[in-house]
Amino acid sequence: MIARFDYHVPASLDEACALKKEYGNTGIVVAGGSDVYAKMHLGDHLYDHVIDIKKIEDMQGIRWSETEGLSLGAAVTHHEIERHPVIKERYDVLVQGVRTIGSLQVRNRGTIGGNICTAAPSADGIGPLLVLDASCVIHGLGGERTVPLKDFFTGPKQTVLADDEVLVRVTVPTPAPSYGGAYFKYGRRNAMEIALLGISVYLEVADDGKTCSAMRIALGTSAPIPIRAQKTEAYYIGKDLSDRQVVEAASSIILEDASPRNSWRADGEFRRSLLKLLVPRTVRTAYGALTRE
Amino acid sequence: MNVRCTINGKSVSVSVEPGDTLRMMLVRLGHFSVRDSDDGEGFAGSDTVIVDDRPVYANLMLALQAEGSVIRTPDSLAQGGRLSVVQQAMIDAGIVQSAYNAPATALLLTWLLEHDPDPSRETVKDVLSGIFVRDTGYEHYFLAVQLAREYRDSGRYASEIAPQFRDHLSYVGKVKPKVDGRQLVAGWKSFVEDRVEPGACTMIMLRSPHAHAYVTKLDTAEAEAMPGVIAIITAANCPDVFYMSAGQGNPEPSPYDRRLFNWKVRHVGDRVAAIVAETEEQAKAAREKIKVEYQVLKPIFTVEEAMAPGAPVVQNGVAEYLSGAPDGLDAYNKGVDPREGKVIYPFPLHADIRRNVAAAAHGAIGDVAQGFADADVVIERTYQSSQIQCTPLEPHIVYTKIDNDRLVVHASTQVPFHLRRIVARVCGIDENKIHVIKEKVGGGYGSKQDILVEDVAGYATWITRRPILYRNTREEEFIANSTRHPMRVTVKMGARKDGTLTAVYMDVRANTGPYGNHCLTVPMNACSKTLPLLNCPNMKFDVTTYYSNIPPTGAYQGYGAPKGSYALMTCLAEMAEAVGVDPLEMAKKNHVERGFMLEILKSLGEGREGTVVPVGSCGLRKALDEGARMIGWGKKEKAPGNDWRIGKGFAMIQQGSGLPGLDHATCDVVLNTDGTFMVHSGGSDIGTGLDTISVKCVSEVLCVPMEKVSILSGDTDNTLFDTGAYASSGTYFSGNATLKAAENLKEKVLAEAALQMGEKVEHLVLRAPGEVFSNKTGNVLSYAKLSHDALTGVGRGQLVGYGSFVTNNAAIPYGAHFAQVAVNVRTGEVKVQKFYALQDAGTPINPELALCQMYGAALKSIGHSLYEDLVLDKDGVCLTPDFTRYGVPMTSELPEDFKAVLIDEDDEYGPFGAKSISEIATNGAAPAIANAIHDAVGVWIRSWPFTPEKILRQMGKIS
Ligand SMILES: Cc1cc2nc3c(=O)[nH]c(=O)nc-3n(C[C@H](O)[C@H](O)[C@H](O)COP(=O)(O)OP(=O)(O)OC[C@H]3O[C@@H](n4cnc5c(N)ncnc54)[C@H](O)[C@@H]3O)c2cc1C
Ligand code: FES
């Protein structure tokens, strides 16, 4: 049973922002609702007002051009992303990420905006967008601003969104014509599972086909918020990615970027050993994806 | 507010509240096949509907969001009474069993085939990734899709569904549609929730936040004055009746150690108050107003803590005995705190509640000390199993009402007759005042052998005279239901160099949690369903069960056997390593075969002396040989990468078929006036196909098509007594009772026909499609005419066959499960590459259902072995109270190569040679996988679940 609330369907961004501001803690913005309604189901009275933004025009659709890159409406579902031909071809790492979310039924409702705004450290859509250097287009009553996704999360389940702001779109620059990307989700089970560790990698190499010229690594469930592993990224620049030992040597650095602690799901030492092992492995997978092209 | 949308092709405009989910709206419109298994967690998929051509969860969408949408529910599939191709294929494949989300699955698969007419296995797996089932292990879902495609393309099935058995029989051993399959797959009214009438009240529970505490103050005055509140029941006003929740035989082998509500709470989630109100909202509001104060006591959670000198005592009440009271009871009971209540023993269980011992038992054959002295090698190992949950898709639910001045209980139960007895005791009324109707059961697995909700709801209705619906939340299923007892089993084993066992000793320490339901029988079963696999002459066991403050335990498919089997079979493999003998050779040297006298059973009766019987039909050797061949025993496999190692393992398994000497089943079969038949069976079909077995028995004996036989079962007013569906008794006991009733009716039909035809009985035979034929005269008398003439006012009345089945003979199913795993030496991950379940079920009466049950049981025990775990924090609060966190196997967890194989054996005592099938299938995975992990990476994992962490730790990779 879901508790009682008033239901609002703002027609425009401004209207949505005004409602969000007006209701503050007593209201909640809802897109697909897969997070919000699941939480509300037990009948606990969490909110007096639900602000349904799923149909707001500016939040719809997937746009793409070589020069402008990709622009995802916040209300785009995981399913739409999964089957989009350009995303499949050029942003495969994002498809790899969202495909691991829940089940078909969840991906048909859940949105990329919701995945980002929930700000769960385990979110499978965030890591790939982080390494693709995505930015968030935010609308507030004062107008629009753009924030790099890596600066979007401010604390556990906290974001930069102000009381009157919503996420409108996510923009992703066009990646290099040749790059390697990989997403690796580690869980106890293979589906319908919260990631115990999520690793996203984007890399580019120089003309020799092996010297790393760009490296972006994002880690999920390794810190209270989704993070980039900047020290590890720096390590890889200029390194020979075809050399397995060189790739694996990053394991001595990775814990400077993230050092997960004990939780009931796994103890800290195990999670740290996984990080050391799986980050280089995912880099190798991404490198493999590049050289295959 | 109004929603306009199209539902199953009809435009509708519906008035809804903003907080209504799409599911609430659909259910109100009569689409009750859109169900919920997890309070909107979005895990189990029972609420799947298609909105604008995309499958979604109706619980995770507001009704208002469906504005303008085109919606399809499972009700769109069957046209009138005609099932769709997919629905029929699901029945024929054997996957419509407890079926709580079968309609949702049918809809999803229909949608899939519309979009991808010939989907790959991977696609089917992905589409089903949001559907959870426990009973059939997913494997035949692929077959159902295949069958549907074949039928669609050619009007018939090309694939084999299951092997068929016994050429001389027409129904038994054949693939035939399950008799309740249509209703279940179509989503027609079936379950308790479908019986609730308008105006029914809701009951909810207030539960303890503490694991161990006295209730020092209870104030319900304000709550009782709240609008809509009808009754609040607590320790202050509940009957002063002690009872037990386990639906077991009478005299009950568990202590009466609880009342409906107690002054002491013994686990987080223990009941404190029941609130009955006109609506759920009102009940919840009132619950907030109940004031409770607790005096918190130190809790204990493990066997070790319970055993420790000076440990807090969980059940510290007055001990009473209905028989066999020990000496010195007065001294024992001196100074007991009245808030502790009582512990009443129907007969002694060798308990010592002051030391937290709930029950104990011992037994031996031969001379174990001598056996160990004669051994070349002696090893001793301890294995720990964890607490796991049955997770039926349909939670515990009951609807109670008064009709004709009697209490009517619509129950989702495995034990309607025990339920009636226990509710009668609690309410202080006679059994004739209670009518229990077993509805379709959306999954039981043992947890519905306990009377966990019917006791309070029944009592509440009895005192208020109001119809009441009670349904556990999913969280309550995890914290206040029954679970597998955690057990610590130590095995000491002696063997000669050649691998012959000389002595075996099992020390079982079980954790029963707050109450003693099944506290003797589950741990005994850890021995009684494992030691008799071995022909070793010297065997001994000690069983001790302890109270603690973990969530309650009880029966779970396999009962004690999976834990005993894990310990004994892993130890056998450890011994094989110790003496340097191949584990398969070692097993073959030491297992029993037909004719072996099972002396050990004498000391393994459930509270009485057991009956010693010889091993009857036994497919153990065949299962071992065939499994070894299939998996390539001894052959080294190529690893999928540098970090992976491959290993193989197996385990021998057995169970029982009911409890000889304890169980009892009765049945009658009536010849209707038109020559058709009505079966009244006391047996409880909980989705497994017992009703189909009964119908097949009658069809076979009376030579009529199954369509001419209908069945009513598990209804205490309208069917005869049966102990119920537990201990793998259905086929053997209830099936045999029906068979006897059918044979009895056959005699009566022949006798009546002889009179009517003026012939001698010796010359008459029954023949299809339902007539009596004279070998002598060639005359024929149809059942219709025979019955009509018997009932025209001059005849001798209705022909009714009666069957009552009790026995001391055992029909023991045997088998072997084989696993091949890949273990990653760096991450500790385990992949089950192959899992082969080979079982001798005697004659599989429903072969397709039997296979699916083997898959289901094997997959759930793979889950138990690898990841499922009920985790508590230091205060006893459950950290895994939902499916996602607890972690159950979904399609993505299927072994890459999964096969269930029926080993053909004919049993002399089972109906048409049948033995039990499904409980046994939970006994193999843990030891088979543990042994395979050892074969792969050389370490023994001696506790559940076999997590990557434990494996790496054992390998010395992490500290
Ligand atoms: C069964 C199940 C399984 C799941 N499995 C996974 C998984 O494997 N991996 C994973 O990453 N996630 C998973 N999820 C979580 C969830 O489905 C995703 O995070 C999804 O993307 C959320 O999108 P939504 O539109 O449904 O969010 P909603 O529930 O609508 O909203 C989520 C949060 O974001 C806010 N929000 C949404 N849109 C905006 C916006 N445009 N501007 C500002 N705030 C906004 C809401 O206020 C709310 O706080 C699962 C959920 C369920 C129910
Ligand atoms: S939300 Fe789907 S079964 Fe509960």
Description:
The complex is a heterodimer of chains A (about 290) and B (about 950). By secondary structure, chain A is an alpha+beta fold. Chain A has three domains: about 5-50, Uridine Diphospho-n-acetylenolpyruvylglucosamine Reductase, domain 2 (2-Layer Sandwich), CATH 3.30.43.10; about 55-170, Uridine Diphospho-n-acetylenolpyruvylglucosamine Reductase, domain 3, CATH 3.30.465.10; about 180-290, Enolase-like, domain 1 (2-Layer Sandwich), CATH 3.30.390.50. In chain A, about 30% of the residues lie in helices and about 25% in strands. Chain A has helices at about 15-25, 35-40, 80, 85-90, 90-100, 105-110, 110-120, 125-130, 230-235, 245-250, 255, 270-290, and strands at about 5-10, 25-30, 50, 60-65, 70-75, 135-140, 145-150, 155, 160, 165-170, 180-185, 195-205, 210-220, 225-230. In chain A, a hairpin with a 6-residue loop joins strand 12 (about 195-205) and strand 13 (about 210-220). The longest helix of chain A is centred in the C-terminal third of the chain and has 25 residues, at about 270-290. Chain A starts with 5 loop residues before the first strand and ends with a helix. Chain B has about 950 residues and is an alpha+beta fold. Chain B folds into six domains: about 1-35 and about 50-70, Beta-grasp domain (Ubiquitin-like (UB roll)); about 75-160, Orthogonal Bundle (DNA polymerase, domain 1), CATH 1.10.150.120; about 195-200 and about 400-480, Aldehyde oxidase/xanthine dehydrogenase, molybdopterin binding domain (Aldehyde Oxidoreductase, domain 4), CATH 3.30.365; about 200-360, Aldehyde oxidase/xanthine dehydrogenase, a/b hammerhead (Aldehyde Oxidoreductase, domain 3); about 485-660 and about 810-955, 2-Layer Sandwich (Aldehyde Oxidoreductase, domain 4), CATH 3.30.365; about 665-805, 2-Layer Sandwich (Aldehyde Oxidoreductase, domain 4), CATH 3.30.365.10. Helices cover about 25% and strands about 20% of the residues of chain B. In chain B, helix 15 runs parallel beside helix 16 (about 560-580), helix 19 runs parallel beside helix 20 (about 730-755) and helix 22 (about 845-865) crosses helix 24 (about 925-935). The interface between A and B is large, with 45 and 59 residues. FE2/S2 (inorganic) cluster binds near residues 38, 41, 42 and 59 of chain B. Flavin-adenine dinucleotide binds near residues 53, 114, 117, 123 and 161 of chain A.
